Amino acid sequence: MTQEFIMQMRPWFGAEEKQALMEYMDEDGFLTEFKKTEAFEQSIADYTGAKHCVVVNNGTISLTLAAMAAGVEAGDEVIVPNYTMIATPNSLRMFGAVPVFVDVEPTTLCLDFALVEQAITAKTKAIVLVAANGRAPAVGIEAFQTLCEQRGIALIEDAAQGLGSYYPDGAHTGTKGLVGSFSFSAPKIISTGQGGALITNCDKTAEKLRRLKDFGRASGGNDIHDSLGFNFKFTELQAVVGLCQMDKLAPRVARKKVIWQQYADQLAGCAQVKLFDHDLSITTPWFIDVLVEQREALGAYLKSEMIGTRVMYPPITQQKVYGIEGSFPVAEDIGKNGLWLPSSNQLTDADISRICDAIKAFYA
Ligand SMILES: Cc1ncc(COP(=O)(O)O)c(C=O)c1O
After folding, report:
1. Quick one: which of 144, 145, 136, 142 has its CA closest to 114?
2. Residue bearing the CA closest to ligand 1, atom 10
3. Biggest alpha carbon distance in the chain?
4. pLDDT tens digits for range 227-260
């Protein structure tokens, strides 16, 4: 019997999205941002408990706009983790700001607070804290908030991987900084194909974000531009899909936690595989992230067994486009040994057993 290939991750759309898109196409021909987009923004604001939500075309531009709205300008320094998706620093390079790389905590893969303190200079204007796989820094978010307040630095939360994850006090990821940013790209827990969202509790910042994404005007349908802005708008079609996806978020969050627990239980006796820990009472594991021995050989073996994996991000400083010297032991370790196991919400219990059995067979 030929086995089905288990992808590392894949988006999940269903009949609901198809039906909602057809209904929308029958009732409105504009497609540009309007009521569906407003409803999608409201659903994210409600879910996260944020006062405002502004959607944009992806979770990279959202970070660019967050930094711009926070007052970051070309030449300013912004502290970012060296373990993250390249979008985090590139969103700053986009307008000439300078990402300054700092290593991450070995348990959470979030920014290492002590190293952040050391990296601050007179030019530092912001810190971008990435919720790595939904996790919060072990040191506590309050440490970052206090530091930023004391030093007059903006705290931006890159929560692209954090929808459905919370801080220990129950606040949703992304609500502790000036702005929180989410991504709805294909591999995320909910997707609109591409898409991003910004949340903030600050009225002024929300207004700046709206203007930045819409040509610098106060509202659509006119050509009066009293500030500089661009076009990073969403579409109603994406919002229609996003609303259906939001309806499915709660069961997806619950299933992600079950999936992580099944991996943890079944791989508990496998000394060569170490899962990064998750407090499932507050965190939603987006991807199953592990440190493994013989990573390349394991990945090749699993592929031959029709199981997809993906190596975790290498240190950004080692990417050719950056090529920065320095010692970042945690990010380097992940770059050598970090692997994402299949993580899609569609994984069945049988799939997880098949994957874990294959991993154990490889090491045996
Ligand atoms: C931490 C982080 N930041 C930013 C992004 C960029 O989001 P997008 O792909 O929507 O531009 C991603 C995407 O995976 C991410 O993981």
Report:
1. 144
2. 59
3. 69
4. 999 999 999 999 999 999 999 999 999 999 999 9
* Topology of the domain covering 249-363: Aspartate Aminotransferase, domain 1 (3.90.1150)
Which tokens belong to 138? 């072990």
Please answer whether residues 174 and 162 qualify as being in contact, where contact means their C-beta atoms are separated by less than 8 angstroms: yes
Q: What are phi and psi of 276, to 5 degrees?
A: -70, 140
With 0-12 / 13-18 / 19 or more C-beta atoms within 10 angstroms meaning exposed / middle / buried, residue 349 is exposed
| Residue 73, both tokens | 């300008």
Determine the CATH number of domain 15-247: 3.40.640.10
Sign of torsion over alpha carbons 113, 115, 120, 125: negative
Instruction: Give the position, in ligand 1's atom list, of the atom nearest the Cα of 184.
Output: 10
User: Ligand 1, closest atom to CA 91?
Assistant: 4
CA–centroid distance, 60 to ligand 1, in Å, is 6
Whether 1 shows a pLDDT value over 80: the answer reads no
